[in-house]
Structure formats: structure tokens, C-alpha cells
Sequence to fold (73 residues):
Amino acid sequence: MTTKGTPGRMVRIEDDVWADYGRLCEEKGIARAADIRMYVVREVTAWRKANGIQAPKKRVLRIKRSKPADSDD
Fold:
């Protein structure tokens, strides 16, 4: 599990390519993981559109928060 609650994935990338990709992402001002996620989302979105597949609806969790207690001031 990652810190955001999504499962981590393992990919194999040559060391020299990974190092240069790190430099590229640094120049773009973005983390490698974020860049990879954006690429994958873009590709999957295009594939779904080309094949008439609708993306699954995102689940929204609503958290009820209690009101703060009245102060005695």
C-alpha cells in the first residue's frame, strides 16, 4: 500500500532510462510517479473513448462531522 491508499505497482525500467527520466521530470517540475499516472490515465481514457467504454463512476465518501461544542465563555 502506498501513502494515498492505492496499491503500488512494479515496473521494470533500465537504470539509465530511469535516471534520465528523473532529470526530465525534474525539468518539468513534476514527480515521476505523477507523470506516469497522468500518462496512463490519458492512454486509458483515449482507449475507452475509442471502444465506447464508459469509465466506472467514482465513489464519493461523505463524512459527517460533528459540530464543535458550545464554549462556556
